[in-house]
Amino acid sequence: MSELPVGVAGARPPEPRVAALAVVVRRGAGGEWEVLLGKRARRSSFMPGHLAFPGGGLEDADEPHRGGALERCASRELREETGIEIEPARWHAAGARITPPMFPVRFDARFFVAETPAGTGVPEDLPSPDEIESLAYLRPGAVVGLWESGEALVPPPVLALLREIGVKAPRSAEACAAVIRDANAGEERQPRIELVRGIWVVPLATRTLPPATHTNVWIPGAASFAIVDPGSDDEEELSRLLRVVDRRRREGGGPPAAVVLTHHHGDHVSGAARIASALDVPVRAHADVLRRLDLAGVRAEALADGDALDLGGESAHVLHTPGHAPGHLALHLPARDVLLAGDLISGMSTILIDPREGSMSLYLQSLRRVAALGCRTVLPAHGPPLPGRSIPDLLEHRLQREDRIRDILASGPSDLDTIARTAYRDVPEMPVVLTRLQSLSHLIHLEERGEARRGDDSGESWESVDTTVDRR
Q1: Helix, strand or coil for residue 342?
Q2: What residues pair up with 86 in beta bridges, in sequence order?
Q3: Which alpha helices (DSSP H) does 125-155 contain, by range?
Q4: Cα-Cα-Cα-Cα dihedral of 143, 339, 292, 4, to 10°?
Q5: Per 3-state DSSP, what percentage of the chain is helix, strand, and coil (rounded to 5)?
Q6: Residue 265: Cβ-neighbour burial (10 angstroms; 0-12, 13-18, 19+)
Q7: Is 271 exposed, middle or buried (0-12, 13-18, 19+ CB in 10 A)?
Q8: Cα-only R_g, the chain
Q9: Comparing C-alpha atoms, which of 306, 275, 268, 302 is closest to residue 288?
Q10: pTM of the predicted model, to two decimals?
Q11: Which terminus of the chain has fewer Cβ atoms in its 10 Å neighbourhood, N or C?
């Protein structure tokens, strides 16, 4: 099974850019380690507002074809972002991490550790406030505590390293680098990607709509947890997921409760039976979805709008959100102020509404419903987390696209190809088959509202109906 329409090729994950990160440590008043962290500017395109290590991509100025280029990169980035000078020879190599493929921008980040004298301060005026808006030496345990209480944003790789430094308390900068190097190696094999506390994620390679290449398997819960949308049929990918699930069981507490499916598309369900069987848990989904699947003897339990999934002290509220697919579900986790959105919204591109099984009218209704929740964070099936305001923004974007189609029809009858080409001329990279399907969905929505009608039975020609209707 695949969500890829005929004529649309799959994509490849963006190539990670080689980068160097500067992990600068000092001894605090009590002798414990403190780590230099910068708060990334709110307007940053990558991890805005997060506490992170200074660093950035390798550049020509670092003489990349000569030995020591990464150490020079770490020194240059540290100087440019913070004003702090550390000679390249003072760095201790501390391993590497690659940004997960759920992000549209990726880095092959090499970590380097250096110690500054106890009591070393930070510059009052930062040289690059557009990148780092504040800077401080902080105790690793204190930062983890701020993250757990929701008072700070910390990228998962940084969080993992701070945990290890705090627990193992290395005796020297060189030993600190060894601790980080070992932690990086372990995380690369079996990552704990926890972008929201209590909700892990494993991006799995799937046959999905480009530019996405992976489907996010979200693992929310407390004393127990669910595995949402295991959409790969690749055994290696599913084995990797099971390893992370085992780690979640060991570190997050409690057993897995269920495999939960947001809808029936192949890039969300292909591994469901395999994972449910391996974990001896049921597959839970809307009844419409369960009717479409062959679960090979695995227990199946229907979910309906208004149901609550018990995740060991926390509840996930089930919302029926059709439009992209008939039995589409979203999960609202009020304790985390989070929406697991499935394919309601994407962090990579637009969501396809295929009129052969979807409905633009229902999709817009579903968007309005989840927008009214006012969640702080949206966790989509494809791409990185999004702020809650992304949902009303997406709704407005869809309505503006529909306004374009209204304007085209107002000029006179037109054929579907012309409507699609004109309405989507701002995204020339979008495959024609997709612009046609999206345009047709909007036209059917206008037809349902009495604003448009077909010029023939095929749906290849359309004209406007002279009426005034509130577009919302």
Answers
A1: strand
A2: none
A3: 140-148
A4: -80
A5: 30, 25, 45
A6: buried
A7: buried
A8: 25
A9: 302
A10: 0.92
A11: C
What CA–CA distance (Å, rounded) separates 460 from 418?
A: 10
Q: Which pLDDT band holds residue 468 (cuts at 50, 70, 90)?
A: low
- Separation between Cα atoms, residue 80 and residue 58, nearest integer Å: 13
Pairing of strands 55-57, 283-286: unpaired
CA distance 277 to 282: 8
* Residues belonging to the chain: 472
**What pLDDT digit, counting tens, does each position of 450-459 carry?**
999 998 878 8
Q: Report how far residue 469's alpha carbon sits from residue 472's, in angstroms, rounded to the nearest whole number.
A: 9
Separation between Cα atoms, residue 236 and residue 154, nearest integer Å? 29
Does the domain made of 398-464 have the CATH classification 1.10.10.10?
Answer: yes
Q: Is the distance from CB of 248 to CB of 240 less than 8 angstroms?
A: no
Residue 136's H or E segment, with its range, is strand 132-138
> At residue 296, what is the residue type?
A
Query: Domain limits of the chain?
Result: 17-189, 199-388, 398-464
How far apart, in whole angstroms, are the C-alpha atoms of residue 338 and residue 201? 14
The neighbouring-strand residues paired with 218 are 201, 228
CB atoms within 10 A of CB 137: 19
Residue scoring higher pLDDT (12 or 109)? 109
Which pLDDT score is estimated for 2? Answer: 44
- Same fold for the pair 199-388 and 398-464: no
Closest by CA to 377, choosing from 322, 336, 344, 349, is: 336
Q: Which tokens hold the place of 50?
A: 């997060």
pLDDT digits (tens, 9 = 90+) for 120-147: 899 988 888 888 999 999 999 999 999 9
Could you tell me the fold of the domain covering 17-189?
A: Nucleoside Triphosphate Pyrophosphohydrolase (3.90.79)
Residue 67: other Cβ atoms inside 10 A? 8
The distance in angstroms from the start CA to the end CA of the chain is 35
Rounded Cα distance between 441 and 393, Å, is 19
* CATH number of 199-388, picked from 3.40.50.170, 3.60.15.10, 2.40.50.140, 1.10.630.10: 3.60.15.10
Quote the tokens at residue 369: 């419903």
| C-beta separation of 200 from 222 below 8 A | no
Q: Is 110's pLDDT higher than 80?
A: yes
Query: How far is 44 from 397, CA to CA, in rounded Å?
Result: 22
